[in-house]
Structures are given as C-alpha cells and as structure tokens.
Amino acid sequence: MVTVAVEGCCHGALNTIYESLKPDVELLLICGDFQAIRNTTDLQTLNVPAKYRQPGDFPDYYSGVKKAPVLTIFIGGNHECSSYMRELQYGGWVAPNIYYLGEFGSVWYKGIKISGTSGIWNARSFYTKQRLDYSLPYDASSLRSVYHLKPKNLLKLLLSGRSDVCMSHDWPQGIWKFGNERELLQKKKFFKEDMQSGKLGSPGARAALERLAPRYWFSSHLHVKFTATFEKNVEVEVKPETTDEIALDMDAESADNDEGISGIDDNMSEEKCKRRKIIKKTSFLALDKCLKGRSFMDTLKIEPDEEHPSAKSGSLHYDARGLAVQMVVERFIKNNSDQWRALDPQVILNSASSRVALIEELEKAVEEETTRLERESPDLVVPNNFEITAPTMNTTPSPPLQYWPNPQTQHLCSKFKLLLPSHEA
C-alpha cells in the first residue's frame, strides 16, 4: 500500500502543508490554486484580488532555499501563475520534487496511475469558436479564460483510460447526489440554488467521471470537505470457462476492491461469452483550502499495481497512454484544423455516454500509439531535469514580463515527437 496525502486549495501555503504531513506519507497530491510564483512579475498573471496578490512560500522552493520533503504532484486551478503554467502545458517540474501535471497529464508513481486536468469549467470559454491568444500581457478577459477548461484537454482526459486517481480543481457536476447532500447544505447553504440549477460543478469533470470511473477522484475549489461514492454499471464479456469462478452477488467485489458483480444476461448461450454487469465504484474526496482549523488535508492508503515498472523504482514515470493521447490529439488538431474548429464541443461531452465516431477513431489511434511507445520506449522514467528559467526573487525580483522557454518541454517534445505547444488555444 502507498500512503498518499491529498490537499485541497494550496494558495501558496506550502510550508504549512508540508508541516502538516504525517511521517509515513510517500506522495502529496494538491488539487489546485497552487500559485507557483517565482518573482514579483509573475503576480501580474495571477487572477486574485489585489490584497491577496502575495508571492507565498513557493519562491523558496523554486530558488532551492527549500526542498519539498515528499514528491508533490499538483494540478492548476483558477488562481495560478498562469504564465509559468503555460510554459509547461504538457507538465513538468516547477521546482525540485514538485511536479505540475499539466493542462492534461497522466503519470505513474509506485504503481499508481494519476491523471487529471487543470483549470475550471466555464461554458462560454468551452463552447467558443474563437481562437484565443494568450500572448503577454494578459488583458482582463484572457487573465481569466487562460485557466478555463479547453475542449482539447477534456478530450485528452476522456481518451486517457482508467486511472487509480483522477484530479480536477472543480467538482464533477452532480457529485453531491452520491454523498450526504443534507450535511453539505448545512455547511454551505448558498450552494442550494446552484445545485438545483445544475451550475455547481463541472460538466467536463462529470463526463470524465462517467467515462473513466477511476478508483479515486480528488477535487477542491469549493472550500469544503465532502465525500461521495459514485457507482457506474458497465457490461463486460466473460468466457464460459471462467464463469464458475465469479460470484453472482450484488455485493461481491473484485481483487482491487472497487468492482462488484451485479448480474448475468441469461439470453447468451453457454457457447458464447456471457455478459456480466460490473459496478465500478469511485471514491470522491473534496477538501478545503489551507487555513487553520479547516479540513484541507486527508491521508489514505492506495493499493498499487505491483506489476507496473514504477512500483519498485521510486521514480515518477510517464504514462504511455497519456503520452499517446498528447501525440494523437495535438497531431489531429494540427492536421485537421478546419474540422476541429467546426466540431461542436458538446460532441466531446456527449462521448462519455454515447458512441461518437471521431472519438472512437482517435481512441483506436491512441491504442496503436500506446503499443508502439511501450515497445520502443520501455524506459518512461520522468527525468529530474528541473532548471531555473525565470529569475528568482533573490536575483532579479522584477524581471520583464515574458514567457521563459522551458527545456523540459523541449526535451519532452523531442524525445516523444510531440508538437511544441503554442500560446494560442
């Protein structure tokens, strides 16, 4: 078992977060609003009220004055140093031992697959047909839309396959129906109107939850602790010779403790594969922001896949399918720009519950690319290649406002033949 700590909204309070860790924690997951501020200029790309525009603790971790005591993986929220996040769109180290998952990302650590998307849901941004330009300096509109969930990043998550852990900053829409809704409303009475109208939570995260049904889903954003258990019924084929080994019990659980057998299709002949209904369960956990007296952290033990190469290496590993998804989606958008711009983003959302020809075509390409990567690149260890790119608070606290090219992105694109990301979306 791997001991994992989960933290809600960070808001730059790394010192308090690390001081709050239990001694046996091996991995820390932070669910957004990380605020990786390197110098005072970075504050110009942080969307917060002026009184909260502070560097926080991160500058010391970026410059090397301090080092994260455990491997830390985080996703972006709606209060981020968006310039730094754009420099690492595919993910990468923001400081030694602190890894940004990217706008979309999927990695392995000690036999646990961790996937997720950054940002929050905004319907206007998601459905826009306008090409968005994120050249610096940001204006009032781009300062916000830069962190909104984009269709291509949701598409990547939907194609990424089932994970042990999935992370999103905002909650999946409707997740409160699978937990103690009454208790939630006692804590946050003003949620009621948005819950009834469907505005609370992300339709994109809900689509991913329904399609992927990971073992765990972690979120933050709403500044309250909340737990739920999402269940999804799926059908699988079982060969006749194996059916006697499966208990026909509504409460039966599989070896990974999150799948139950709930029935059998008696219309199938014994000679053919029988279809069984499997209950896939996702444990949902949302946490508060890092403040004294608030429920901002929880610790749990996750059973790893002992067969995965990362299980015994102790290093962070790229996920082959995640890399394949990056390649396939970015290549498709570049080579089919007119088709992509004409695509109704609602089609991507609908793919969670219905068959979509384009999605099935892309999924086939992802599977082929994954097989090739696993064959040609057996070593998928993420290199510890962090470099200081932008000036630090100790050297040049107020450098010019610009994007600082990151060697990690260049190395990743070169090694895996990924397209270099642009500052358009």
List the SSEs and their pairings.
Layout: E1 2-7, H1 14-19, E2 27-30, H2 58-63, E3 71-74, H3 82-87, E4 92-95, E5 98-100, E6 104-109, E7 112-117, H4 123-127, H5 142-145, H6 151-159, E8 165-167, H7 181-187, H8 191-197, H9 203-212, E9 216-219, E10 226-238, E11 259-264, E12 274-286, E13 297-302, E14 316-318, H10 320-335, H11 337-342, H12 345-350, H13 357-376, H14 407-416
Helix pairs in contact: 6-10, 10-13
* Integer tally of domains: 1
Order of helices and strands: EHEHEHEEEEHHHEHHHEEEEEEHHHHH
Number of strands: 14
Strand content: 15-25%
* Overall pLDDT metric: 90
As residue ranges, the low-confidence spans are 242-271
Number of discrete helical segments:
14
Report the span from N to C terminus.
40 Å
Q: What portion of residues is helical?
A: 25-40%
Shape: globular
Which sheet architecture does the biggest sheet show? 8 strands, mixed
Radius of gyration: 21 Å
GO molecular function, one term: RNA lariat debranching enzyme activity
GO cellular component, one term: nucleus
Protein name: Lariat debranching enzyme C-terminal domain-containing protein
Question: What can be said about this structure in brief?
Answer:
Helix content is 28%, strand content 19%.
Describe the protein's architecture and organization.
The protein has one domain. 28% of the residues lie in helices and 19% in strands. It has helices at residues 14-19, 58-63, 82-87, 123-127, 142-145, 151-159, 181-187, 191-197, 203-212, 320-335, 337-342, 345-350, 357-376, 407-416, and strands at residues 2-7, 27-30, 71-74, 92-95, 98-100, 104-109, 112-117, 165-167, 216-219, 226-238, 259-264, 274-286, 297-302, 316-318. The strands form 2 sheets. Strands 6, 7, 8, 9, 10, 11, 12 and 14 form an 8-stranded mixed sheet that branches. Helix 1 (14-19) links the parallel strand 1 (2-7) and strand 2. The protein is globular. This is Lariat debranching enzyme C-terminal domain-containing protein. InterPro entries: Calcineurin-like_PHP (IPR004843), DBR1_C (IPR007708), Metallo-depent_PP-like (IPR029052). Residues 269-422 form the Lariat debranching enzyme C-terminal domain.
